[in-house]
UniProtKB/TrEMBL annotation:
This is Transcriptional regulator, LacI family. It comes from Pseudomonas japonica. GO terms for biological process: response to fructose. InterPro entries: Fruct_sucro_rep, HTH_LacI, Lambda_DNA-bd_dom_sf, Peripla_BP/Lac1_sug-bd_dom, Peripla_BP_I. Keywords: Activator, DNA-binding, Repressor, Transcription, Transcription regulation.
Length: 366
């Protein structure tokens, strides 16, 4: 019996598919009518609904409610397992204390880290962060817009794949939903954007490879129509203004490992070998490059690599890689402050907030 007990109470075990032949009592059926309401808590505690609401929402001291009343309400709440309905509270206060985040790819390490930092920061401020991936598909992103709108989120973070001509975010913001762009900037006259300062970062990263005197250099990127891709390509081009060697650029349709592998395979087929230096515009593309190089480890040792995005794993590779790391914590902190200023203070100032990247050098002159 002791194996089935928890703090002296008998646990009810329910086996899926046993049709109660096990002898254990079936779980009680869910019945919405049995849910305890705020009015029930007030009646059982002998107070008004308003007083019960103040106690449950932490406003008892502000409203000068006696300790005895507070303890009585809390005892009833605990006894009946009451939890406030955030949607109902949101209808009354016009705030649900939920925030949304549409990101392009849940497997992308950079977005995953930003999402984690955002969630932790939001929770510390009393907000819940809802996260969804668009898979960098415009139709999916538009569906998620409406989903978060229906959930009555107080603000929406997004790394958008939609073209600048798309008005859907303008329409959402006009209806009262503050939009905060992350990593991929949007129209600075209409939206707040928190991005990495990618153009100068790309310039510095490319120059770190040019210092090694390559005869040819290549860039592997994706989604050239996006502002983030254009900034990284611009820095690459600027660094090469006096370069007299061979330059190649390969652009794919997605920031994905498979796309990186395909582009690297295309480069090898066209050039008949490796360039002296290579820049990838995201870490997931670099992963694909490694996949393509896995079949030719011998001659890849001479390749000088630079990438956007960084991870500790790169410290242990036999092939050194210079990297431009994002400051995920600072990006998340800045974006959250902008969102809460819009929600709580009704202060929304469009513009671009650029966060510098940090350069990690692993390749040194011999």
């Amino acid at each position: 019996m002791s194996d089935n007990c928890d703090n002296g109470r008998l646990r009810q075990w329910h086996r899926i598919g046993d049709n109660d032949r096990s002898g254990f009592a079936p779980a009680p059926a869910y019945n919405k009518e049995n849910l305890v309401k705020l009015s029930d808590i007030a009646r059982l505690a002998g107070v008004s609904v308003t007083t019960a609401s103040y106690v449950i929402n932490g406003k008892a001291e502000q409203q000068r409610i006696s300790n005895a009343t507070v303890e009585r309400v809390r005892a009833v709440v605990e006894a009946h397992g009451f939890t406030p309905n955030p949607q109902a509270a949101g209808l009354r206060s016009r705030h649900t204390r939920t925030l949304g985040f549409i990101l392009p790819d849940l497997e992308n390490p950079s977005y995953a880290r930003i999402a984690k930092q955002l969630e932790q920061g939001a929770r510390a401020r009393g907000y819940q962060l809802l996260i969804a991936s668009s898979d960098d598909q415009p139709d999916s992103e538009r569906q998620l817009q409406q989903l978060f709108r229906a959930r009555r989120c107080d603000a929406l973070f997004v790394a958008s794949c939609l073209p600048p001509s798309d008005d859907s975010y303008r329409e959402l913001q006009a209806k009262g939903l503050p939009i905060i762009a992350i990593d991929r900037s949007m129209d600075p006259k209409a939206f707040c954007s928190v991005i990495s300062d990618d153009q100068p970062a790309s310039l510095e990263l490319t120059r770190s490879l040019l210092a090694l005197k390559p005869a040819n250099i290549a860039l592997i990127g994706a989604r050239p129509e996006l502002s983030v891709s254009q900034a990284r390509a611009s820095g690459f081009d600027q660094a090469l203004h006096a370069f007299t060697g061979k330059v190649s650029q390969y652009q794919g349709e997605a920031f994905s490992r498979e796309c990186g592998r395909q582009l690297m395979s295309e480069l090898l087929a066209e050039q008949g070998g490796l360039p002296d230096a290579l820049v990838t515009t995201s870490y997931v593309l670099l992963q694909g490059v490694f996949d393509a190089l896995s079949t030719r480890p011998a001659d890849s040792r001479a390749l000088h690599l630079g990438t956007f995005g960084d991870t500790q794993l790169l410290d242990f590779l036999p092939l050194p890689v210079n990297a431009m790391a994002q400051q995920h914590g600072l990006i998340a902190e800045t974006a959250l402050e902008l969102a809460l200023a819009a929600v709580e203070q009704k202060h929304y100032q469009p513009g671009i907030h650029a966060v510098a990247r940090t350069f990690k050098q692993r390749i040194f002159k011999g």
